[in-house]
Amino acid sequence: MTNFDLNGSLSPAELESLRELSKGLGWQTIPARHTTKLLSLGYARDAVGGLMITDLGRLRATDGS
């Protein structure tokens, strides 16, 4: 079984960006520094057509902490 790290530190604004990404919204308007952080924590990945949330990111977005 894989253990996921949902403890990556996100500011409230970064968490909001992740939530917007989980809805399929706003990836074009997510600040670059948020994008960098979400990518580095594995919560998002680069995809054809833009940024895409990962399974780990979806778990974190719904976890809310």
Helices and strands, with pairings:
Elements: H1 12-22, H2 32-40, E1 44-47, E2 50-53, H3 55-63
Antiparallel strand pairs: 1-2
Structure explained in plain terms:
The protein contains 3 helices and 2 strands, in the order ααββα. It is an alpha+beta fold. The chain has a two-stranded antiparallel ribbon. The mean pLDDT is 84.
Shape: globular
Query: Mind telling me the C-alpha Rg?
Result: 11 Å
Strand content: 5-15%
Gap from first CA to last CA:
23 Å
Number of helices: 3
Helix content: 40-55%
Strand count: 2
**Strand-pairing-aware structural class:** alpha+beta
List segments where confidence is low: pLDDT < 50 over at least 5 consecutive residues: none
Strand order of the largest sheet: 1-2
Q: What is the makeup of the main sheet?
A: 2 strands, antiparallel
The mean pLDDT is 84
